[in-house]
């Protein structure tokens, strides 16, 4: 049985080597799951010691890339957590509608399923033509899959059920075509999506976003890194811009919690306060409203348009 102290030393040396050789900084990823994934990689490669990986990684870029792909968990699905999309449709779309042009950033988009989900939602709300979606990830293989928008046909039952639970009414099949093994997302959905590499640890701000969606990414980071990334999002949002986090993630203990109001606590939807970034223009809509309050506004609006 190897001593934890020695193992931690090996991991620390490994992370330094990766940073120095390839510029990827994994030092602030959450240690427990990181260790599990490194061990899975050792097993896969038939290597005994973590430190044995170091010379191989330094000299063999392909070997490093295969470690990179083991270290990043890319599990995702279309309309994952349907109530979140329902809440976006009901409470954020009315605000997005007030902008002449809409910018949305999916950070950590993995293989792109949630990006196409958003594109479908915007298309149904008549907003897709004036939207630009930026979809980024650290994992280049995932981004390639995302760009193609080709997914196994076995997933479609689950995706269709999620889509309807998220408030989708037309058949989902209007947005893809299929062959015997796969579904291929429609090219119309792809035209306003820009997929590109972006590392949340080291890369900089994406300016003037109206909505940032970063779900199930922060759970892999420690508190220091979570704070760094949340500050990056805060600086990338317009005043009164929206942020959507994953089910197990929250702004609650972050050092920027006071810059946001909670729009939907269960759906992890937040909006920056008007004073957060004084240099930025703000939403066309008025005051910040919680889901409870916007539900009232929507009801009043629909009554007045009847
Ligand atoms: C579990 S997936 C989440 C996918 C999607 N957002 C969802 O909730 O279904 C986590 C993604 O975060 C990406 N990721 C991990 N570290 C990252 C970093 N430093 N910068 C950008 N993306 C990162 C991984 O490559 C992976 O695709």
Note the main attributes of this structure:
306 residues; alpha/beta; Rossmann fold; 2 domains; 7-stranded mixed sheet; 3-stranded antiparallel sheet; 10 strands; globular; disordered C terminus; binds S-adenosylmethionine
CATH class of the largest domain equals: Alpha Beta
Sheet of most strands:
7 strands, mixed
- Helix segment count? 11
User: What coarse outline follows from CA principal-axis ratios?
Assistant: globular
Q: Could you say what the CATH architecture of the largest domain is? A: 3-Layer(aba) Sandwich
Question: What would you give as the CATH superfamily of the largest domain?
Answer: Vaccinia Virus protein VP39
Which structural category do the helix and sheet elements fall into?
alpha/beta
Order of helices and strands: HHHHHEHEHEHEEHEEHEEEH
Q: Give the strand content.
A: 15-25%
| Poorly predicted residue ranges | 278-306
Q: How helical, in percent, are the residues?
A: 40-55%
- The separation of the N and C termini measures 72 Å
Radius of gyration: 21 Å
Question: Widest sheet: strand order?
Answer: 6-2-1-7-8-10-9
Bound molecules: S-adenosylmethionine
